Amino acid sequence: MKYGTYYLQLCDLFSTEELVEVPLKRLAEEWEITTRYAKKIIQELNKENFIDWTPGKGRGNVSRIRLLYSKHDVVFGMAKDHVRRRKIHEAFSVIHNHAPEVKENFVDWLSDPSL
Asked: How far apart are CA 19 and CA 1, in angstroms?
């Protein structure tokens, strides 16, 4: 997932499956990027069905976001992608940095002979 780290930061800010009002400017500040790039990331995450995003159109209308996947699911998926690209070190790095509690399940997945 190209924007996985941004999604993981959203997981740290908001709970999964809860509709939250959030201005785009706040996301840009959290990610330390421009609002224009934040909008692009949000559009991509929405297109890939990682979030539900309802933009707040007009002055004073705040955008709404809902995270569709848990942090553990996304970390596990990112780690699997790294393994498929033969980047084992990156897989464990993602787990270590974002969700160490996933490590045991990940090691079990790695030891599966049907891989």
From this structure: 23
69-79 pLDDT, tens per residue?
A: 999 999 999 99
Helix residue spans in 14-102 (DSSP H): 24-31, 35-47, 71-84, 88-98
How long a stretch of residues is the chain?
115
Return d(Cα 56, Cα 69) in angstroms, integer.
22
pLDDT digits (tens, 9 = 90+) for 17-45: 789 999 999 999 999 999 999 999 999 99
Alpha carbon 73 to its chain centroid, in Å, reads 9
Q: How far apart are CA 110 and CA 22, in angstroms?
A: 38
Kindly report the number of other CB atoms within 10 A of residue 76's CB atom: 21
